Every structure is written in C-alpha cells, then in structure tokens.
Amino acid sequence: MENNKTIQNLNSAFAGESMANRKYLFFANLCAKLGEVEISKLFKETAEQETEHAFAHFRELHPELEVKDAKQLSEKEKKELVSKCLELAIEGETYEFMSMYPEFYKQAILDKNGKAQSQFQEQINESEEHANLFKQASRKFNLLISIEKQHARKYEDALNQVNNKEKLKLLEPNTDKLTQKWICRKCSMIYDPAVGDIDSGILPGTAFEDIPEDWICPICNASKKSFIPLTEYSGDYESSFQKKFI
C-alpha cells in the first residue's frame, strides 16, 4: 500500500482505537472492583465498539487480509493468509524488542525512572520471546505445507495406479548427504539439510547423519530413528487437484 499521509493517519487511528480498547477494559475492571457494575458494563461495551473501529482501520491498511467467506477460499489461499498474519506478527514483535523498547529503556535511564526502566526491559524480553514464538509457528506452518504436498503426491500416485494411469516419476536415490532430504515415517515431516532446524539448534547445511542422536521431529516428537531417506518425484510437481486452486 502506498506510503502517504492517509496511510500514516490510518496507522495512527488504528493505534488510537486499539489503545482506547485496552484503556476502557482497564477502567471496566477497576469499576467492577469498586462495585460500580453498570459503569463497568458501559466501559466494556464501549471497548468492544473501539475494537470494531480498530478492525475497520486495519482492514483498510491490509485489505488482502479481509475474508468475506472462508469457505470460498482454496487451501492455498488460506495458507497464504495465515503466513501473512505470522509475518506481520513477527515484524511487529521484532520492532518492539529491537527498536521501540530499547529506545524507551535508554530514555528511562536518562530520566532516572527505575520503574519504567524495569518495565521496558521486561517488555524487551517478552517481545523477543513473542517474536521467536511466531517465527517457530511460521516455520512449523511451512513444514506442514511440505507435509501436505507430500501426502497429495502419494495419494495422486495411488489414484493413478487405481485408474491404470502412469505413475509419477521418481528421482534416483540421492547420495549427496548435504542435499539428501529425510522424511519422518510418523508424520511425513521432511528434514532438508539446506534449511536445518534452527529451533533445535541445527544450522542450515547440516547433513542428517550429523544431527545429534537425541534430536526429535519438530512436528510429532518422533526420534531421529523414525526418519528414512526421502525419494523425491522428478520435475516441478503440480498435481491435477492442485491446479484447481491456482
């Protein structure tokens, strides 16, 4: 989306409405503790309205995330939307712990505000943790995509066999340990040496045989012994069913 003044205003409006929502919920909780039930209810209702205002602004900022009818979306489109949400979450949390809170923390030191300093440091740690969690979710989500693709290939191969059609062509066994992929027999998670498993401390470029024996599948927690060499299909595979969603 074009980076103009209106976009800046939409971002400010989204931030303002979001802040109002949390502020009114704080007031609602306080009033409830003080026995002011009706006023607490008023703050909660207003907070919900502010949420709708914030959602409206966010939809303007990211129209690609607006979904009218999820049932009309292909599996590919659904995965793209989830990936986009994770990307935005990672971006936001990374900005918080890399830029925003460190600057706030430095200012709190200059202002000799120990309480704010402590809060900002805590938020730096939490934002970094959140960013890492979103990154893990994103990586696992991408792993699931490759799993479903592998399943689709196997099913289509079986369908071709049932219908007496030509089976999908397989590549010759790979003998290069730095490019040989391995697949989990339990969940079909595919280990790719070029990617590694960052969340488990396995760096890209690590051959499967060089992974520690106590390593487990990041999807189903199966042991390393549950993996076997992956025999890949030749060509740029695209199933006849997949074409319906492209």
Give a verbal description of the structure:
The structure is a single chain. The protein has helices spanning 5-33, 37-61, 75-110, 114-162; strands spanning 182-184, 190-191, 227-229. It is mainly alpha-helical and 246 residues long. The chain has three domains: 1-62, Ferritin, CATH 1.20.1260; 71-168; 172-230, Rubrerythrin, domain 2, CATH 2.20.28. It is elongated, with a radius of gyration of 25 Å. It starts with a helix and ends in a 17-residue tail after the last strand.
Sketch the major β-sheet: 3 strands, antiparallel
**How many helices?**
4
Protein structure class: mainly alpha
Number of strands: 3
Average pLDDT works out at 81
Fraction of residues in helix: 55-70%
Number of structural units classed as domains: 3
* Distance from first to last alpha carbon: 24 Å
The radius of gyration computed from the alpha-carbon positions, rounded to a whole number of angstroms, is 25 Å
Strand composition percent: under 5%
Anisotropy-based shape: elongated
Order of helices and strands: HHHHEEE
Low-pLDDT sequence parts: 236-246
